[in-house]
Amino acid sequence: MKIKTRCFSILLLTLFTLSTCRSGPAPAQPETIADTGIPGTAPTAATETPTIFVPPPSSAPEATLTFTPLTPTETSTPTSIPSVESLKAKVTDKLSCRYGPGSEYLYLYGLNKGANIKLIGRTDANNWVMVDGKNKCWVNAKFIEIAGDQKSLETLYPDKYKLPVSPYYPPTTGVIATRDKNDRNKMEVSWNDIPLRAGDEEDENMQHYIVEVWRCESGQIIFDPLATNELAVIFIDEVGCDQPSHGRVFVQEKHGFAGPSEITWPAP
To answer: What pTM value is reported for the model?
Structure first.
């Protein structure tokens, strides 16, 4: 009986010893960084490269898409030409200076090669410029050397310059404009005759009528003074210009111009 009691005491002492050893302090572990929070991911030792925290899918906020409108690419705009009151020029060949902006108008006087002149204006849609002086007149810019850009001159024709008026003849009448049925770009303008008296021609080459047309060609308005001794002219007027085409008819005689008679422009 004493032997059993002794064995039971030894067993209790053994169990107490084992319990005391297990409840002692845990062995030191290497310092670690925080868990990434992603299931199945083990902590990473401080000696290793830290893992960037990424929230698990269940806790990640929903992404919000912000639409930023594209800024339109700026397109270059033509630089405006500064306006000037006048430009100096030199005549490169003998040149006629005329009452109107075209070779079809009455002759005023001639300019010698090498003459220095001053320009004060231009037309709205052709290459003729106005020469300053006691008797202002028009020359073709391709026969002069201009010290500057002729487009910087003020536009004087047709609104700010008037042709000298004939005191002896009335404007023509019956002006009609029609388009060709087979070619809508082809225009014909006709009018009634105003006969000239003998001796009222400037010379044998003078044309009795001048038809000024601002017509559309290749998307641009072109100014054409069309001269004739007939009672009609035919020309091309296309569609596609920003400004409307228009025109007028003058009777020309050596003392001046009768009119104008406005052209009623037909639809394209």
So the answer is: 0.69
